[in-house]
Description:
Helix content is 37%, strand content 19%. By secondary structure, it is of the alpha/beta class. The radius of gyration is 20 Å and the shape is globular.
Amino acid sequence: MFRYLRCLPIVPLVISAGCGGASTAVEGPAVALLTSGPVSDAGWHAGAYEGLQMIGDSLGVHISHQQTRTPADFDEAFISYAESGYELIFGHGFEYQDAASRAGEAYPEVTFVVSSGSRPSANVVPIIFGLHEASYLAGMAAGAITRSGIVGMVGGVEIPSAKGTFIAFEAGVKAMREDATVLETFIGSWDDVSAAKEAAAAQLRQGADAMIHNVDAASFGFFQAVREAREGGRDAWAFGMNRDQNDVAPDVIAGSAVINIPQIFLQTARAWQDGTLEGPLYTGLATGAVDFVPNPEQPRVIPPMALVQIEEARMLIIEEKIEVPSIDFVEPAAEDPPSA
């Protein structure tokens, strides 16, 4: 079972100023990253920034990061980086797909990689992380530890990749406890801490005692709601998502469904450097790209027999003897136009 790097950057390395893109041309290979949220979120964006740092350190290339919030910002940043000589640009999230497709047509010599993307082309490469497989194992853990039989899920924006992790999580819960009730709330934001806290608190009031999130910085509010429930005498537990968050709130987290984003980004950049990068890229338990990591600070929360069942399920998924339900949101690759 892999472990994450523990360093969490506080201030990103940004070559450009503001959201207008890289204003200064670079010499030599250069790689850029766009995120729609802060890299201090201890989750989705933090993992991407760690990956960018690994690319810079391991491949010796220029790196740059920008936080972009609107679709107009996405287009502008892709164009600015491409015009400045960046040859590999990551858009970290499904929301970057349309802008990457437009930029890919305008800059055929630049490679655009979209995390959880859906539309591959000659120079636009989606990465499909296979997080639903790890989420299924987390669901098994939740099904094993719930006493009320009510399990909660709090998400950000209801995009296919996020919805797919919840479908898998619910299937894992019911593999362990068929009669369980699973609550689902999407708050419409990845970073609204207050909204995530209130959504989690509402599910806790409905009896949920094992809960997972799929948000970014809003996870801090989610964990706080579970913490306050425990302080009030509830035997409630949370599960982390996207990154090993066990040390973010070790007092309330039973385990995390994680993606090894840094290593996947580095492998993607190496394939690009070698000229072998093609998409879409599929990852999962079989490649070590995702996993469920129980919290070592809470070794008695998940029963030993449940851990054995989770390990058995992991191997069956790898051997393709269990097909974890999710959403297939990848479109067919664009065909080259017919020659005249």
